Amino acid sequence: MSVQNDTFILSSRGWLLSGVIGALFLFFTMTALHLFQFITGALLLAVLVIFRNPERNTNETASDAIISSVDGVILSVEETLVDELKMTKVTIMNSLWDVSILRSPFDSTIEGFKIRHGASLPLYNPLSDTLNEKAVISFRSSNGDEIYIEHLSEQNCFPIGIDLEKGQKFKEGSRYGFLAKGRTIIYLPEKARLSVNAGSSVRAGESILGYLNVA
Description:
By secondary structure, this protein is α+β, with helices and mostly antiparallel strands. The protein has 2 domains: about 5-50, no CATH class; about 65-210, Glucose Permease (Domain IIA) (Distorted Sandwich). Helix content is about 15%, strand content about 35%. It has helices at about 15-30, 35-50, 130, and strands spanning about 65, 70-80, 85-95, 100-105, 110-115, 135-140, 145-155, 160, 170, 175-180, 180-190, 195, 200, 210. Helix 1 (about 15-30) packs antiparallel against helix 2. The longest helix has 17 residues, at about 35-50. The N and C termini lie far apart (about 40 Å). About 35% of the residues are buried.
């Protein structure tokens, strides 16, 4: 099943795990093994929360709006250079209890992407940037504007899940992957006008980060 068509209340990525834990929970319930019943019940609840897959929509109608790709809190907004190009760097942290589904920031075409499988170190470890699992994706709008999104996984037992093909088209808010816990960096063109600041809470597919074209 394509991620963008995965519209069940529980993401298809969590079906097998929740089914196995659910079966164990029922077994321990029927055999009156209360300690194991409690443990598997808590695990099942945690998995259902982590893999929840709510519908999200934004009321924004502007075609140049940039919607957040991830749930979380904005850590910083700063200017940076990417291949000698001035860009605005928006860093977002999402926790294990945020919704983990990743969504397209606008109507876009995938220009390219890279996925690096690796370790799962805590992000305060200086080696995490070079060793942890990472996905970098390039989205291009119908007007030719390009943004880059980098997802870096933090210490957890769930790998990054990305379901993309080069040239694939996405509607704004369409699902394209999964990040249980980690850091997302969104690189925007210098001309983009932001409507968020450090400390702002954002929701994937719903919160507006800014606009691509300054009027």
